[in-house]
Amino acid sequence: MSKEVRLKVPFSEEDINKLNLEDVVYVDGFVFTARDEAHKRAVREQQEPPSGLKKFNINVMFHTGPAVKRENGKWRVCVAGPTTANRMERWIPEMIRKFNLRGILSKGLLGGITSEACVEYGCVFLTSLGGESAAMYSSGIHPIAEAVFWMDLGAPEAVWVLRVENFGPWIVAIDARGNNLFDPITDQIKNRILQAYEKLGPAPD
Amino acid sequence: MDSNDKKLIKPETIEEMTVELYRKAATTVREDFVRGFEKAYAQERNALAKRHLEAMMKNIRIGKEKSLLTCGDTGVPIFYIRIGGNIGIESSYSGLNGAISAIKEAMIIATKRATDEVPLRHCTVNGITRVNAETVIGVSVPHFVFKFDDKEEDLLEITVNPKGGGTERALPMYRNSYLYEGIWGVKKIALDAVVGGWERRYCWPVKLGVAIGVTPEYALELAKEAALLRPVGDRHPDSKVAEIELELLDILNSTGIGPMATGGDTTVLDVSMEYTSTSHGGIPTGVSCECPMAKIATGVIYPDGRIEYKDYPGWFKHREGYNE
Hints:
Chain A is an alpha/beta fold. Chain A has helices spanning 13-17, 36-43, 92-98, 112-121, 134-138, 182-200; strands at 4-8, 24-34, 60-63, 67-71, 74-79, 103-106, 124-128, 147-149, 159-174.
């Protein structure tokens, strides 16, 4: 039976070891954002994490590109909904290592290389309910951004520090032991897809 | 005063309506999609799928109540503009080009305003350099699609579609169905596209568009128009086409991909199929889709300046050369 928990960032090893597949997590504290370009900069271009990020002591990465607006000298976060994880998967194991991640908040699914990295470094992959659902997720995000780095990548691709409260729901999709919620589901879907081709029937002679 | 003056639509009216259409497209989801979700939720048997659908419906409610983006990917702006009857546009230039320029100028001003007022995310980047100019306007963006509908009454219909990138990346497919395969091949291409979309990952369920077009590029364009501009639950007036739509809906939902690809009965909310005549040498088939948060909104301006917001456009009201 899955459980519902609230976790504070930074996540501890103990926090994530207690999580099982399909548990529902709500997050409090600070998270940092990253999309494709930030992954590329950190991994392919081998840049160190922005130095200003250290003081926030964040070990949870949120895959998103926020919609922001400059107001009275501050950045207002209009919405930030999770974006598809698997576009970035090739870079994710190195992101986990480099940013000492214990959690990734994202959308969709990830596969074997992420499961292995989760075991090796002690991390969990948390996926969204209802896809991007930006309006719903944004109700857990403080409307003013705490900090931003790598703004030269463009606002959606920059690394933002966001304060979150009761931020979720997130479903545990890869636990710290490397179990992947999607492995059995993917097998089931593959079987069902074969049945769908059978339903279509053979090509006419 | 020339009697034609009465028919001139002011660019300011186009601008005002377009800004409002951006807001509607980005923060609300079209009613036919909402009804599609409700129906899918009632029929869905998979527990996790039900939770995804529930979250999506909650997201739609919050977006509408708080005027928040239902999806952060407000993408690149695409406009479908249907010019009905003998409508005219007030313009400092003359002729048809003058009218078109006036519409485009008003909508580009509206795009700049909406980017700031809604606001929209700056999703547009240069195709080569990938540089984000911190606006949604770029090289040939916004993208304009015009339709001149002389069977329609005097009106200007505008559909705004801030098109997100996820579905565009994953699913659309073009292929030529072999002649020996015929319509079976068309259905197989639709199924292959859905399976390919599942492998490349993005938000499910989608509304699928399938089209046989005059040539490859128009097949894809028509498939996209079918996906976006026809409502969920609408059937093609040609019963042969309607039958294919329903058969595909059944086949595609039997893939079990389900909402957010975690399994379930709801993979596509509906299938809309369109066709044109084509060469006897092939069956150019396109498949495209609209994502679940359906960022589309339509409005109409009449000659007296009156604005009316519509649930969906009349894009396919008069199919050319088609006898119902």
